[in-house]
């Protein structure tokens, strides 16, 4: 298992380098730059050049990337050009909010998605299965921006159960978690149901039936372990989806977090902050995938063998 | 009940009472979309400041909605007849939030700080500052500047504590902001909120407030809510007590709320359509004029903005003297004139209603930046242009991208955009040839306009002269159809009457500390 872990880590290195290059290039290729936001309208070209030189933006892009990457590898993401604070400090101040939202949403998606998917598989073909899966399909199609406003209207405005926005109390987390989580529920439930149905058709299950085991016993004792394998993989991939979804949700709910920081900084083309946020989000996706793969390998020796 | 027990119970009750009653003095305001993400509270170097800035800093001079000037940190002022010296008597007894005194030495330090910053223009004509005595300063000018009082009243002229400013360097305005205003900055989290606490020493409010200080509100949390719908719902449910800006879309619903009061104050903004004068077919003044006369200001004002604010027929906000141009220069909807001009220019109506000339259709680019209001407006403008024979293709950019695109100079033709400014020198910013691309989106480069620009910007010695010069410059720009005026929004804000009581008349050009000083918290 340790060997597998080391091999997976080594495989992440080129992925990290490619991701960091893409992050850097995307930010710099978008029209506009932070200098636009530092100058009053009508400022002279000389003044623009002076500021570009001050922040090293006049250097070739490759040089800028190399310097940024070198510093990033030592944990230094630079100083925000517009926000004038170390990027690491800005990220650390916002990360707890994003983690609270992301992890809660992941937990919610997993618990509800696996339960609903498994129940739909248990009653596969019944009206319950059809209604639940149709509902889930609809849920997966709702844009999180729209869903967030709908949640606010129902639970905050009409029922008065939760705050409309912000992060000043624990209950302000409920609606954002539901908004991010519902999209996750749809995918996880679909994958869970499909996995259960597929495993239920395998020969060993027929054998278990032939041996006289009850349907319930087969389902909970034998199917679960096999069926949850693809779900674990999906959960790993879902980390990225949830982090991405949180960007919109943080905006709608006016919550602090990496998403809000990213949007604020992107609007001002504050390159170091945007790069730092995207790098963190990218690493979140990589980490999620790694954890998913490791969990799968731990559950299934065949996965480890394929890598050896 | 034993005595110690009673004492404990009474103390607890008193404490509970204090805890329960404390929030009555604390309110939450919200700033929305355009102001969200303002990176600092450093008025000297900032290019953007949010509404909370006026609560932290005082200025030497204040401007009222009628454009008149009022004493603030300067108790009085006068200038020599040649305009080469201005003498300001400073208000006594003023202290910064850090306890440092406000006096003539502060002004002597403050004015040179603008050199090399983006706001250097505001005091560019001040040669030097002389300290006459502890509470008197004299500005020696390089040239007369009739606009000096306007500049001193701008939000970028909030005066920071020299001690705090020098100590914090680049971090000033981010980690701390120290002024003399009615509120002290307790905490600032960019993009999220600013917490302000009352300055109990404040007793130097201006004559634009009834209450000269301290403020009646003890603590203000200014939240930043980027999504307009969320901000509106926060006000509706009592999550925030005041919205600094209310999108016109929400006004009917807010007006229907019994516990919400919507107020409008004269606007500081003009929505307009710059026309790229160097991009064919708009190199032809007749085509430019046709596009300008195709815009139905009145129908936009009524249907899109519910009759709030005013139609715009010039480039300047209507409260400025320079906006009162000869009516023959004002641009108003005239579709027949528009069609006639296009006919004269050789653009004939095709079978689909779109005009063509020499086999080329009258296909033009129409840009705007993202934001619900502009998205809807640009669609209306597109249909109005189509009614006279233009086929306009809409492209929507984010704010940073669109400015970068303008700077390319060759990509754009028409755009829907707005500016917010309360001085006629905005014409220089948007139409001076040296600023072609951005902000001179019209790429307007005309010898006569340049001559009028120089006269207005540098040769005006008195305020009246300046008004006359800028009015002539304004009229000439209008006559060249470098843009089409569309709409003059009102400043609309709303507050919860359950929590706040504001004066009926709002003084100043915006909702600023003058009004907040008079605000009372309802229990």
Automatic annotation (TrEMBL), chain A:
<dbReference type="InterPro" id="IPR035906">
    <property type="entry name" value="MetI-like_sf"/>
</dbReference>
<feature type="transmembrane region" description="Helical">
    <location>
        <begin position="273"/>
        <end position="298"/>
    </location>
</feature>
<feature type="transmembrane region" description="Helical">
    <location>
        <begin position="99"/>
        <end position="124"/>
    </location>
</feature>
<feature type="transmembrane region" description="Helical">
    <location>
        <begin position="227"/>
        <end position="253"/>
    </location>
</feature>
<feature type="transmembrane region" description="Helical">
    <location>
        <begin position="9"/>
        <end position="30"/>
    </location>
</feature>
<keyword id="KW-0812">Transmembrane</keyword>
<keyword id="KW-1003">Cell membrane</keyword>
<dbReference type="GO" id="GO:0005886">
    <property type="term" value="C:plasma membrane"/>
</dbReference>
<dbReference type="Pfam" id="PF19300">
    <property type="entry name" value="BPD_transp_1_N"/>
</dbReference>
<comment type="similarity">
    <text>Belongs to the binding-protein-dependent transport system permease family.</text>
</comment>
<dbReference type="InterPro" id="IPR000515">
    <property type="entry name" value="MetI-like"/>
</dbReference>
<dbReference type="GO" id="GO:0071916">
    <property type="term" value="F:dipeptide transmembrane transporter activity"/>
</dbReference>
<feature type="transmembrane region" description="Helical">
    <location>
        <begin position="131"/>
        <end position="157"/>
    </location>
</feature>
<protein>
    <submittedName>
        <fullName>Glutathione ABC transporter permease</fullName>
    </submittedName>
</protein>
<dbReference type="Pfam" id="PF00528">
    <property type="entry name" value="BPD_transp_1"/>
</dbReference>
<keyword id="KW-0472">Membrane</keyword>
<keyword id="KW-1133">Transmembrane helix</keyword>
<dbReference type="InterPro" id="IPR045621">
    <property type="entry name" value="BPD_transp_1_N"/>
</dbReference>
<feature type="transmembrane region" description="Helical">
    <location>
        <begin position="169"/>
        <end position="189"/>
    </location>
</feature>
<feature type="domain" description="ABC transmembrane type-1">
    <location>
        <begin position="95"/>
        <end position="292"/>
    </location>
</feature>
<keyword id="KW-0813">Transport</keyword>
TrEMBL record, chain B:
<keyword id="KW-0732">Signal</keyword>
<dbReference type="GO" id="GO:0030288">
    <property type="term" value="C:outer membrane-bounded periplasmic space"/>
</dbReference>
<feature type="signal peptide">
    <location>
        <begin position="1"/>
        <end position="24"/>
    </location>
</feature>
<protein>
    <submittedName>
        <fullName>4-phytase</fullName>
    </submittedName>
</protein>
<dbReference type="GO" id="GO:0015833">
    <property type="term" value="P:peptide transport"/>
</dbReference>
<dbReference type="GO" id="GO:0043190">
    <property type="term" value="C:ATP-binding cassette (ABC) transporter complex"/>
</dbReference>
<feature type="domain" description="Solute-binding protein family 5">
    <location>
        <begin position="69"/>
        <end position="423"/>
    </location>
</feature>
<dbReference type="InterPro" id="IPR039424">
    <property type="entry name" value="SBP_5"/>
</dbReference>
<comment type="similarity">
    <text>Belongs to the bacterial solute-binding protein 5 family.</text>
</comment>
<dbReference type="Pfam" id="PF00496">
    <property type="entry name" value="SBP_bac_5"/>
</dbReference>
<dbReference type="InterPro" id="IPR030678">
    <property type="entry name" value="Peptide/Ni-bd"/>
</dbReference>
<dbReference type="InterPro" id="IPR000914">
    <property type="entry name" value="SBP_5_dom"/>
</dbReference>
<dbReference type="GO" id="GO:1904680">
    <property type="term" value="F:peptide transmembrane transporter activity"/>
</dbReference>
